Amino acid sequence: MPRLSEKTREQRRQHILTSAWRCFSRDGFHATSIEDVIAATGMSSSAVYRYFRSKEEIIRASAEIGVARVRDFFVALLERDACPTPAETLALWVAELHTRSDNPDYDMSRVALQTWAEALRDPALHEHARASYRDALGHVGDLATRWRDTGQIPADADTKAVAATVFTLMPGLIVMHHLVGDVSADRLLGGISSLGAALQGLPRQFGDARGA
Q1: What is the pLDDT of residues 165-197, one digit of tens each?
Q2: How far lies 98's CA from each of 14, 91, 104, 172, in Å?
Q3: Would you say residue 47 lies in a domain?
Q4: In whole angstroms, what is the distance from residue 77 CA to residue 90 CA?
Q5: Above 60 in pLDDT, residue 212?
Q6: Angle at CA 128, nearest 5°, toward 123 and 133?
Q7: Is 107 helix (H, G, I), strand (E, B) or coil?
């Protein structure tokens, strides 16, 4: 039997993953068995097991890809000739969420929700997701630094705090999408602007209170 090319092997591996994502999007990690995934691929069990030894391996691979896509989103923004403004970045993230959730075959935002829950019980997945998200957060920090350097946020802005705030919006938007209702880019930007106006000057007040 001729050996498969690297390209063919990668295509088959990706086919197994996308088949699993359809199952996970519909039924969740724990209600989906490895037999369900095998059936969805249309491949033999031995063929699937050449690539993944268990459903847990498929879940971990799915988590790695999902987190990598978050990182790649911000890397792509940093590679643009013109750095997007904070407002443009948030609007692009909302659009990215819709791209992931509107896929007719599988919903990666559903997979993300399940991955976060799974990471609480799987130490290996937790450590991998933690490291990958920290890496992604670092890229958001680079973006915030560019905003500061180009005068789009105050010169004395804490870029790490700005990055943490932007990054924190990601899971919130996904939860709202699935459990409450979509938040449009306009509503998100309007809400943040209103909060910014209301909170202006508060950090100094809090600092005075701690020193009293």
Answers
A1: 999 999 999 999 999 999 999 999 999 999 988
A2: 22, 11, 12, 14
A3: no
A4: 11
A5: no
A6: 125
A7: coil
User: 3-state DSSP: the chain helix, strand, coil percent, rounded to 5?
Assistant: 75, 0, 25
pLDDT in tens, 117-141: 999 999 988 998 899 899 999 999 9
Looking at the 3D structure of the chain, how many domains does it have? 1
Give Cα separations from 125 to 164, 170, 173 (angstroms): 22, 19, 23
Give me the CATH number covering residue 144.
Answer: 1.10.357.10
Place of tokens 């033999």: 44
Structure tokens at 190: 């309007």
Structural domain for 73, as ranges: 59-201
What's the chain's length in residues? 212
**Number of C-alpha atoms within 13 angstroms, CB side, residue 1?**
1
CB 147 within 8 A of CB 74: no
